[in-house]
Amino acid sequence: MDAPRHERRAAGALESEVLAVLRSVDHPMKPSEIQSAVGRDLAYNTVHTILTRLQQKGDVARVPYAGRIGYAPVKSAAQVAAERMREALQSSDEHEEILQRFITALSPDEEDALRAALDGDRRT
Amino acid sequence: MNITVYLPFVASILIGLAGPVVARRARPAVGATALASIVAIGAIGALWATALLAATLVDDVPFLARSVGPIPVPDGVALVALLTLVIASVRLVGVLRRRRRLYARIHDAIADLEPVDSDVVVIADARPDAFAVPGRGPARRRRHEQRIVLTEGMLAALDDGQTSALLAHERAHLRAGHHRLRAAADLAAAANPLLIPARNTVGFLCERWADERAVADVGSRRLVANAIATAALAQAADARATAAGHQVALGFNHCGTVDRVAALHRPPASALRAATVLALVASVFILAADVNATGELLEIVRRLV
User: Fold this and answer.
1) In terms of residue numbers, what domain contains B229?
2) Tell me, what's the ipTM?
3) What's the domain range around A66?
4) Nearest to residue B174, comparing CAs of B198, B219, B139, B202?
5) Which of B6, B20, B61, B265 is most buried, with most CB under 10 Å away?
């Protein structure tokens, strides 16, 4: 009875592993490349099954790549926005001065002071 | 033209020195408004004085050249003033353009995101960060466009109470139009670098102002202080984990996170009339000096024609 549940959990872990591999590069990957990047002696068929499942979920897309079929991660709107935000902030030397940020970077001394303030607060 | 033409520059230095006193003692809303006004007047006054100094070159314009009696401004000083004026104009335009470009790119970045709560958008970034983005254009569109940007990392770092404190803080920035005060102070500092310390104080006071508004909203000084400290420490921890925050270069910080937390651990400051008095005195001082010097320049021009 335990075996199928275990397998399912393993499949979930493999899916996130494959997604992480795809997200770590900025180009699509062929299944064989994914297979060697994940390692762990995965069978080619297993990789294929995982990719099909991810595709059904809408997490990856099949795209033409290097004359073959490759797979690329589908980004959520929040991920696309985060990337564009990072580019926007990097394009400006003055974003620290312009933006109305909740918090800004701390020096090590300031970190100690804040930690002390939080601790003192918890104790009272 | 006597010494009065130089007084606006002296006043600029005094404004910079007075800033920290205002920051420590004044109620933030009063202090920020008063200081931003003085800074703006200081910049305009100094620019006008610089223009007057440059204008004393009129007696050297070839077809106007004629003896008008002694002008007590050496041509060297007048030339430096002219150059300063040109540099200041270039810098003013640059500040406005860079500001507009950054906000345009930020609006583009979040344009496709559906707000999760009227004006809050969450971006998939593990780095804890949060800021307010004012809308652009006419008032109605501005309210429709304004956003509070939160990263997933920030949401993960704060509990529910702390998150509402953060949202109250950022909404206070948007509601009170702090970006306008900060833009005015930025422009003033670009035109007159002597005002940079006062500009930084205006930034700090706007943060304090938003903190106090957040306190009024969530009803606890301690909760707002905890939210700030927790968020700042989470961001510092993340920066260390991702090799010194290589994604977004972080400059030094003059918005005094530690001072904000300390201020929230104290009872609220009493209103400081000194801030308003200081604003009035400095403004009158600068305006009087400018009016006096302008009169003298007019006298020179009258002798010329």
Assistant:
1) 3-304
2) 0.80
3) 2-73
4) B139
5) B6
Handedness of CA B67, B68, B69, B74 (dihedral sign): negative
Domain count, chain A: 2
**Residue B151 φ then ψ, to 5°:** -95, 160
Give me the amino acid identity at A1. Answer: M
Chain B positions touching A97 (Cβ under 8 A) are 186, 203, 251
- Total domain count, chain B: 1
The answer to whether residues A58 and A17 belong to one domain is yes
User: A114–B258: do the CB atoms touch at under 8 Å?
Assistant: yes
Q: Same domain for A30 and A57?
A: yes
Instruction: Give the long-range contacts of residues B55-63, CB within 8 A, separation 24 or more.
Output: B55/B297, B56/B1, B56/B297, B56/B300, B57/B82, B58/B300, B58/B301, B58/B304, B59/B300, B59/B304
pTM for this entry: 0.80
Q: Are residues A33 and A61 in the same domain?
A: yes
pLDDT tens-digit profile of B153-206? Answer: 999 999 999 999 999 999 999 999 999 999 999 999 999 888 888 898 899 999
Residue A18 belongs to domain with CATH number: 1.10.10.10
- The reply to whether A64 and A98 lie within a common domain is no
Given B131, B179, B226, which is nearest A101 (Cβ)? Answer: B131
